Amino acid sequence: DTAVSQTPKYLVTQMGNDKSIKCEQNLGHDTMYWYKQDSKKFLKIMFSYNNKELIINETVPNRFSPKSPDKAHLNLHINSLELGDSAVYFCASSKGTSGGASETQYFGPGTRLLVL
Amino acid sequence: AQRVTQPEKLLSVFKGAPVELKCNYSYSGSPELFWYVQYSRQRLQLLLRHISRESIKGFTADLNKGETSFHLKKPFAQEEDSAMYYCALIENSGGYQKVTFGTGTKLQVIP
Questions:
Q1: Residue of B3, B27, B44 to mutate, testing the A interface (most A Cβ within 10 Å of its Cβ)
Q2: d(CA A29, CA A11)
Q3: What gap in Å lies between CA B72 and CA B21, rounded to an integer?
Q4: What's the pLDDT tens digit per position in A52-108?
Q5: How many Å separate Cα A76 from the centre of its chain?
Q6: pLDDT (tens digit per residue) in B74-106
Q7: For every residue of A34-103, which 3-state class applies, written as one string?
Q8: What element of type H or E holds B66?
């Protein structure tokens, strides 16, 4: 069973379009994340979300919005896509404890987004 | 603010040579540090974490608070070690985690 899955694996679209990437985890984790990996392989956190709180990286444009229908899903919606949005987007999850040791994050396979 | 620095973008070594991937951090609290690895076109996965003090695939990393470092080492590099390696500092805060990744180091093991 895949612990963290993302769809689609590849996404090619035109500038200006709106698209969504889905993420699902079957680990029973409380916290989920979205990361962007650019062409230089630099990994940057975009959002972290649990039942109580959405933490947004202040550098993320408001065209990006996470939506969580339930604890096992955190989808990423992107409006008015731009060329610079082309990247690999990774979803991840962790147990999300309220204290104590930090948890390992489990990553999805990534979604390669290409904006033309 | 927490910060993670990986000074080398690319590290090339010959097969069988020792490997050291550098990671330095700045953090005011007690850090929890991880190394993640990404093989070509695969997902990011945990390699090791400092609190486990374990050796995975021959890699070890020791947290040096005096030097604020968490360098990843392996005595003899293998071709299958070629990958991107990310150092990460995780702060557990009120039910969520704040994660800071370094910029990554690409390890290239030359046959």
A1: B44
A2: 27
A3: 5
A4: 677 767 688 999 999 888 889 999 999 999 999 999 999 999 886 545 556 788 899
A5: 6
A6: 999 999 999 999 999 987 665 566 788 899 999
A7: EEEECCCCCEEEEEEECCCCEEECCCCCCCEEEECCCCCECEEEECCCCHHHCEEEEEEEECCCCCCCCC
A8: none
